[in-house]
C-alpha cells in the first residue's frame, strides 16, 4: 500500500509518501514541504497546496491519502487555515478518485512513538529510525507527514478488520431480528 501523508497547513504543508510492505515494514518514497508566505492572498495559498498535492498524486500514485485531522487549538486563526488546507487536500484526493483517511495527532503519535502525547522531536526521531533515514526530515511538518503515512500503513489493516466485523455483526443482528419477527407471526 502506498500512502501520501499530508500535514496540512498554509505556511508549511508537509507531504510524505510511504510504501507499506506488509506488517510493520515501511519505506520512505518521498518527502517535502509546500511553503507559502503569509503575505500571499489566501486563495493563492490554497491553490498552491492543491497544485502540489495534485502533482504528488500524479507522480507518486498513492493508493490512499492520509490527512491529519484538524483539532481545536487556542488560536482560531491557525485552526481555520489548517482546516482550509485540509479541505483542499481532501477535495484534491477525491477528485483523483483516492480514498481519504483522517488521523488525529494523538493517533499518529501513539502509532509511531507508542505515546499519544509525544512531542515533535520524539516523532521526528522515531520516524527517522522507523524509515531508516540517513537524516531527520526537516522541518517537523515533513516528519509529521511521513508519520501520518506510516500511521495509516499500520492502522489501516486493523481498521478494515474492525469494519468487516461490524458489518458481519450488523448482518447477524438483522437476521436474528427477522427470525424473531417470523416466529412472532407464527404464534
From TrEMBL:
Residues where Mg(2+) 1 binds: 7, 141
Reaction(s) catalysed (UniProt annotation): Endonucleolytic cleavage at a junction such as a reciprocal single-stranded crossover between two homologous DNA duplexes (Holliday junction)
Cofactor: Mg(2+)
Lineage top rank: taxon: Bacteria
Keywords: Cytoplasm, DNA damage, DNA recombination, DNA repair, DNA-binding, Endonuclease, Hydrolase, Magnesium, Metal-binding, Nuclease
Pfam families: RuvC (PF02075)
Recorded GO MF terms: hydrolase activity
Record keyword DNA-binding present: yes
UniProt cross-references to NCBIfam families, sorted A to Z: ruvC (TIGR00228)
Main function: The RuvA-RuvB-RuvC complex processes Holliday junction (HJ) DNA during genetic recombination and DNA repair. Endonuclease that resolves HJ intermediates. Cleaves cruciform DNA by making single-stranded nicks across the HJ at symmetrical positions within the homologous arms, yielding a 5'-phosphate and a 3'-hydroxyl group; requires a central core of homology in the junction. The consensus cleavage sequence is 5'-(A/T)TT(C/G)-3'. Cleavage occurs on the 3'-side of the TT dinucleotide at the point of strand exchange.
Alphabetized PANTHER family for the sequence: CROSSOVER JUNCTION ENDODEOXYRIBONUCLEASE RUVC (PTHR30194:SF3)
Name of this protein: Crossover junction endodeoxyribonuclease RuvC
Organism in which the protein naturally occurs: Pseudonocardia acidicola
